[in-house]
Design brief:
The protein has one domain. Strands 1-4 form a two-stranded antiparallel sheet. A two-stranded antiparallel ribbon has the order 2-3. It is globular and about 60 Å long. The relative contact order is 0.18. By secondary structure, it is mostly helical. The protein is built from six helices and four strands. The longest helix has 23 residues. It binds protoporphyrin IX containing FE (HEM). InterPro entries: Cyt_P450 (IPR001128), Cyt_P450_CS (IPR017972), Cyt_P450_E_grp-I (IPR002401), Cyt_P450_sf (IPR036396), Cytochrome_P450_monoxygenase (IPR050121). This is Cytochrome P450. Belongs to the cytochrome P450 family. Its cofactor is heme. One of its GO terms (molecular function) is iron ion binding.
Length: 172
């Protein structure tokens, strides 16, 4: 059940959301289309390896996961024996805690203009081709963990990235 739910529905949501945001933001759509078309001259060239280094494609997918996290809630954790200090608060043992993506990612405390689709906020200095497009938003990117983290973080993350990059770039 974990593989069916985690590996299919979530990915479908991520891809549907990316298409939704691209259609709503024609400028981003155009930049991504140009990136894909200028990087490949045939469909066979679009592979897992060759799509890894497309900066705008990765930026669009990150911004999609931020604005429409396919896993909007947070999976629960139980506070261990003896309790714990979590984010500065003393929490007794046995309590259930969770950090929902849906609170963290659209929050203006973490992201500037959180309701606006800006893939450029994810471009890095190393993405030299698109350096001119880069936008420094002063975001708290450490708040962004769409795949969660720790020993129970998503085991399918590499597969999910491969599928998202391949499907979206082939479609475009
Ligand atoms: C965009 C796609 C995906 C997102 C955003 C995502 C996100 C997540 C998140 C937030 C968790 C919860 C981790 C936690 O409790 O801390 C999780 C768990 C999990 N994911 Fe994914 N996932 C994606 C795709 C996939 C794929 C493609 C697979 C496998 C085919 C997969 C398999 C799993 C499994 C088995 C778990 C449970 C891990 C555990 O409890 O140890 N996921 N995922």
């Amino acid at each position: 059940m974990a593989i069916v739910v985690a590996g299919s529905e979530i990915l479908t949501t991520a891809l549907a959301s990316s298409i939704h945001f691209l259609l709503q933001n024609p400028e981003s759509f155009k930049i991504l289309l140009e990136e894909v078309h200028s990087s490949f001259s045939s469909e066979e060239q679009i592979t897992s390896a060759s799509t890894t280094s497309l900066p705008y494609l990765n930026a669009v997918l990150n911004e999609t996961l931020r604005m429409a996290p396919p896993f909007p809630g947070g999976l629960h954790r139980e506070v261990p024996k003896g309790g714990a200090i979590i984010a500065g608060y003393a929490i007794p043992e046995g309590m259930t805690v969770s950090v929902p993506c849906w609170s963290m990612f659209p929050s203006a405390s973490n992201f500037t203009s959180p309701d606006i689709f800006v893939p450029e906020r994810w471009l890095k200095d190393a993405d030299s081709k698109l350096e001119s497009e880069q936008v420094e938003m002063g975001d708290k990117k450490e708040a962004f963990h769409p795949f969660s983290l720790g020993p129970h973080g998503c085991i399918g993350q590499p597969l999910a990235w491969m599928e998202m990059r391949l499907i979206l770039s082939r479609l475009l």
